[in-house]
Amino acid sequence: MAQDTNWSAPKNPMELAMKYPACVGAGGNVTDEMVAVNAHFQFGDPQGIGAAFKPTFGMGLWLCTFLHTIAVEIYLALTPVEGERLRRISYHKQLAAGLPNPGSAGTTVQRWGDAGEWQVPRKKVGGEVEGEER
């Protein structure tokens, strides 16, 4: 829209009218018309630089979210001991918060691939949690 360029629009309305004629209506006022802006990285043309960045930000956001999600899942799959440690920490935090079903509060999947269903850690006679190493 023509008003999107107001932050960097030339101070002289005639310069704006020459550069983007569709932006200026009768009487010299800026209109709400959509205007094609040449996307490039030429110094001194902030509208072109802004137009060059605008379409890539949305795609970059989705790509980064996807890659980070996949990277975390791969990390947890390659480090099962660390995944179990984080799962236990999560269980204890859910237990301390008083959630109705700690360990299965719907914050993570119960199974991943061919792994068995996660079981709540049980205490041994010495007070040590089963499976933990000192």
Would you kindly provide a written description of the structure presented here, covering whatever features stand out?
There is one protein chain. With 134 residues, the protein is mainly α. It has helices at 13-19, 46-78, 80-97.
Which properties best describe this structure?
single chain, 134 residues, mainly alpha, elongated
Distance between the amino and carboxyl termini: 63 Å
In N-to-C order, the SSE pattern is HHH
Helix/strand class: mainly alpha
Question: How many DSSP E strands?
Answer: 0
Largest sheet: none
Shape: elongated
Oligomer: single chain
Average pLDDT figure: 76
Please summarize what this structure is.
The chain is mainly alpha-helical. It contains three helices and no strands.
How do the strands and helices of this protein lay out in sequence?
Elements: H1 13-19, H2 46-78, H3 80-97
